[in-house]
Amino acid sequence: MTLMPEPQLWQLARPNVLRMEDIAAEAEDEGWDGMVLTDSQNLSHDTYVALTLAARATSRLLLGPGVTNPVTRHAAATAGAIASIQELSGGRAMLGIGRGDSSLFNIGHEPAKLRVFESYVREVQAYLSGETIDKQGYASTLRWLRDAQTGKVPMDIAATGPKVIALAARHAERIGFAVGADPERVRWAIAHARQALPEGKPPLSFGLYLNVCVHDDVATAANMLRGMVGTFAHFTGMHASTAAGLDARDQQVFRSLAQDYERPRHGHNDAAHARALPLDFIERFAVVGPPQRCQALLAALLAEGIDRLFVIGPRPDVVGEAAVVARKRFVHEVMPALRRR
C-alpha cells in the first residue's frame, strides 16, 4: 500500500498586531503547518506588519497573505514586502494573491479585470525572481534581493473560475482553489489547471480554501459558518464568473449571492445574504458536523490531489467562544486523522 504524503494544514486568520505573536505561536504549538492572514486594509490591521510579528514569534510556521490583491500596492511593493517576510522567516513565506474582494469594494473598486491581474502577476513574479523590468525607460528591480539568503517566494493564486485557474496555471507555482467542498467540483478545477499548464512548466501544487466547523450537530455547525460561507461562495457569483464545474441545483444560490451580497456585513452571520443561504447548501459547500464526518469529507477532498487545506473556521468576533471550541476540536479530533491517512 502506497502512503499519500501528509497534507499541509493552514489556518486562516485576521491580522491583529496587538495579539499576532500569541496567535501565531499558538497555531505553531497546535501543529498547524501554516497561517495565512486576510489582507483588507479597511477591516483589519496591516497584513505585512502582522506577518512580521508572526515570523518573529515562530520557527517553523509557514506564512503569507490569504490573499492580497493587484490594486492596493504596486507590484514592486508587494514583491518587496513578501520577500522581506521570506528573508526574516528563513524561507517560510508564500504569496497568496487574488483579484481582490473586500479590500477593493471598501475603497470603491471592483475586483481587478483579468488582463490587469495577469499583468500584475507577471510583474510580481519577475520582481521575486530578481529580474529587471522596464518601467517607462527605467530599469526597475529589487536590488537588495541580490543579497538575500533565501529562495524565491512561491506564488499561490486564489482561483474559482476557469479563466483565473488557467491564468494561475500559466504564471504561479501554486493554486488555491475556492470552489467549496464538492469533490466533483474540486476534481473539475484540478483537471482544468492541469490542462492549462504550459508545456515544460513544473507541476502545480494545489490548495483548497475550505470553510470548516466541528460540532456534534451538523445544523449548528452550518449556522456558525453562515457568514464565512457567504463570503467564499459569493466568489463563484462574481461578475464574469461562469457556471463551469457547478452543481446545477446550486447555481441559483450563487446568482443570488452575486445580486444581494450585503457588503457592509461582509463575513457576518446576520447579513441578509447569509441568512438566506439554504442549510443544505451550506452543508454541501462547507465541511461541518461531528469529527468523524469532517474527517471523511476532508479525506475525500485530499484524495483528489489537494496538497494544502486552508481551513476557515467560524469567526470568534461573530460567534464568540464557540469558534475557539470548534478550532480546538479540529486540532485534537480531526487533524490527527488527516495526518495518519
Structural description of this entry:
By secondary structure, the chain is of the alpha/beta class. Helices cover 45% and strands 15% of the residues. The protein has helices at residues 20-30, 47-57, 75-89, 102-105, 114-128, 162-171, 183-196, 218-224, 226-233, 251-260, 272-275, 279-285, 291-302, 316-319, 321-340; strands at residues 8-13, 34-37, 62-65, 95-97, 133-135, 138-140, 155-159, 174-177, 205-214, 287-289, 308-312. Strands 1, 2, 3, 4, 7, 8, 9, 10 and 11 form a 9-stranded parallel β-sheet that branches. Helix 5 runs parallel beside helix 6. The longest helix has 20 residues, at 321-340. It starts with 7 loop residues before the first strand and ends with a helix.
Secondary structure class reads alpha/beta
- Uncertain ranges: none
Helix content: 40-55%
First and last CA, distance: 12 Å
* Strand coverage percent: 5-15%
Sheet with most strands: 9 strands, parallel
Shape: globular
Q: How many individual β-strands?
A: 11
- Counting DSSP H or I runs of 4 or more residues, the number of helices is 15
Q: How confident is the prediction overall: mean pLDDT?
A: 93
Please write the string of helix (H) and strand (E) elements.
EHEHEHEHHEEEHEHEHHHHHEHEHH
CA gyration radius, whole angstroms:
19 Å
Query: What oligomeric state do the depicted chains represent?
Result: single chain
Could you give a quick summary of the protein structure above?
The protein is an alpha/beta fold and 341 residues long.
